[in-house]
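This section describes the prediction task in plain terms. A model, or a person checking by hand, is given the sequence of a single protein chain and must write out its three-dimensional structure as a string of tokens. No templates, partner chains or ligands are provided. The sample shown here is typical of the held-out split.
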Amino acid sequence: MTLPPIVRWATGIRWQWKVFIPIFAVMLASLIGMAAMLRTLEVLHAQWILVAVVAFAILLSFVLLSVLLVLIEQPLQELMDTISRVGRGDLTARVDFAKREDDIGGLGRQFNEMVQTLQQNRAEIEELHHREMLRAEHLATLGELAAGLAHEIRNPLAGIAGVVDVMSKELPDSSPSRAVMGDVQKEVLRIQNILNDLLSYSRPRPPNFHPADLNNTVEQAVLLARQQVLTKPVQVLFAPGASLPKVLHDPALIQQVILNLLLNGIQAIPSAGKVEVHTALELDFAVVRVSDTGRGIAPDALSKIFKPFFTTRSEGTGLGLSLANGIVQSHGGRIEVSSAPQKGTQFKIWLPLAGPQNGKPKSAAK
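The expected answer:
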């Protein structure tokens, strides 16, 4: 919309003149009225009276303008200069007119308090960033150490597993040691799974992206999970989303994520229950929802479940959800979780249809 010329001219006038324009207008109208009155009354030397009044009005205007400059213009200029310094990162800048005991001084004190708060917040953020960097370096060192130990342990562990397998086959069927050998094989398998999790966490493989049917990926995970509940009264249900387009993802990695969530849900159900999986299309995202009727997650633990090595179970490494979160983020997506004790848990996985944008997660609509 184009403004009229008079309006554009008025918006370009400095605020000091905008203040004095009404004063000048009133003075001019008063002088015209006074001149007319003096002419009507035929007062002698009326012109000298008008000259004196005009001189007094001009003097009064300059006095008012000087006072205005001292009271408002200088603090305003100081405030603008200080804001410019703060904008360049100098949070030690303060305004001196905060010492005044008027409204302008109150504004200055509030501004100084705001800048001081910004300075304190920046110091806290820098300290937090420093601690997080130290923690990241510590975790990276632990990851390298864990990866090295895992490699060193896997080879002798494979040998132990082979010896145990040979010994269990050579034992007679009536030998009570066969049951013990079965327990040993089970524990060896558990150690192997822990080592695999450590290696996957410390050295994750990059995703192999290609367009694929997400429903097929999820269905494969559901079929594997159903094999775990053949002897339990737990249902694993899958409702594929209709007309879901192909999604750019790594089917093997996403299947690993879904299977991890399904197994967690199954383990969270103490007796009978069900785990449901739904896929759907929401805006530019494919959404996978995994919900269970288990015991739920305590509120104080909900914010920690994606942290490495955090677990609420007596078994496991606490790396499953951390690995799942990392895989989803590498796809440019994210995981949301909601839960309540004794009411179950729901995970929502948001995957962009076009895959990650420049390696960064897109913002999913809530």
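For orientation: The longest strand covers residues 273-282.
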